Amino acid sequence: MLDVIIVGGGPAGMSAALTLGRAQRTVLLLDSGEGRNAAADAVHNFITHDGTPPQTLRDLGHENLRHYPTVRTAAIAADSVRRLSDDHFEVGLADGELVESRRLLLATGLRDELPDLQGVEALWGKSAFHCPYCHGFEASGSRIAVLGAAPDRVRLALHLSRFTEDIVLCTGGASLEPVMQSVLEANGVAVHCSPLARLEHEGTLLRRIAFDDGSSIDRDAVFIKTTLRQRADFAERLGCDGFPDGCIEVNEFAQTSVAGVYAAGDMARRATVPIPLAAVVAAAASGTVAGSVIDQDLVGVDFKLPNPFASGRA
Ligand SMILES: Cc1cc2nc3c(=O)[nH]c(=O)nc-3n(C[C@H](O)[C@H](O)[C@H](O)COP(=O)(O)OP(=O)(O)OC[C@H]3O[C@@H](n4cnc5c(N)ncnc54)[C@H](O)[C@@H]3O)c2cc1C
After folding, report:
1. For ligand 1, atom 53, which residue shows the shortest CA distance?
2. At what angle do helices 280-302 and 11-22 cross, to 10 degrees?
3. Is the pLDDT of residue 313 over 60?
4. What long-range pairs does 51-55 form, CB within 8 A, spacing at least 24?
5. CB 28 less than 6 A from any atom of ligand 1
6. Domain 2-112+227-302 CATH (choose: 3.30.70.2740, 3.50.50.60, 1.10.10.10, 3.30.230.10)
7. Looking at residue 236, what is its pLDDT?
8. Looking at domain 115-223, what is its CATH homologous superfamily?
9. DSSP symbol at 314
């Protein structure tokens, strides 16, 4: 029986494995190798690693983990998860092997469902972005478009107007409240209301946005809204509470509503956080918290001591 099985080996899962390895816990870290930012050339906004390719960061993580003999990593997907008791979990691997542990940490991340728009797939992570903190700086001074008409799109267009003088909000056929239109225009954001036809590109470089009415505008970068989905449904299957947007609810100690089940990284957030705040360094930090809290949980059980984090959930 292992101390902990971690499902998901992105920044959250690897950081938790590091903490648990340093605590000399027996850990199995399972990873199917589909990190959320895999399409991007570089990880930004991570102090000491700004500009590092995502795969390099993962390789560095594995290099760190090799130092800890109680941590085993496996490049394989988990297929099933069963909670046999508060202290006993069984995880089925894609090759049919069954592994057991005292605690379970889910760090399976989210995936981005792209909008149904010709060209967007080829550009994702290269010229089509979702996050101003990950990609805004690199798009500075270029010709930017934001797609959509919802209030959060208007807000993003205004936000990005600080990065460039050439920015347009493409509403995709929707009309905007006159007051919104005036605020955008007063801040140098042009508005284009024709329905979208496609993103025209050469390889991974955006060239222009074409509209149904035959017009087009030359652009270098486009900010889109993706639909976030859990990459795996284990938390849901185990009965963990979640939010209407599909994110799993945890407290500040990475505890889900189900005893013994922890969650970290993009897939989970606290109720006080209104929307997912996804970042590599934040995912890594939540993995560190989860690793420490799980270790303290096991110290409590083994030495019959109170768990200092028991006040949280389940
Ligand atoms: C295009 C793009 C660019 C980004 N750029 C940046 C950036 O520059 N800076 C930044 O800070 N953030 C960036 N982000 C956000 C960042 O990618 C995430 O916040 C971060 O990856 C979350 O880490 P995580 O460990 O929670 O999940 P992930 O990194 O997604 O890792 C989850 C892991 O779990 C594995 N997994 C899933 N299901 C299973 C299963 N059944 N069995 C085994 N393993 C499984 C997956 O294969 C994956 O490796 C970007 C996101 C996107 C979409």
Report:
1. 37
2. 40
3. no
4. none
5. no
6. 3.50.50.60
7. 97
8. FAD/NAD(P)-binding domain (3.50.50.60)
9. -
Decide: 61 in ligand 1 pocket, CB within 6 A: no
pLDDT tens-place string over residues 21-67: 999 999 999 999 999 999 999 999 999 999 999 999 999 999 999 99
Share of the chain above pLDDT 70, in %: 99
Q: Is the CB of 78 under 6 A from ligand 1?
A: yes
Q: Is the pLDDT of residue 314 over 50?
A: no
The residue written with tokens 């967007």 in the block is 120
Give me the DSSP letters along 63-83: HHHTT-TTEEEE---EEEEEE
Q: Is the pTM of this model over 0.85?
A: yes
DSSP H stretches of helix in the chain: 11-22, 54-65, 120-123, 132-135, 151-160, 178-186, 234-237, 280-302
Length of the chain: 314
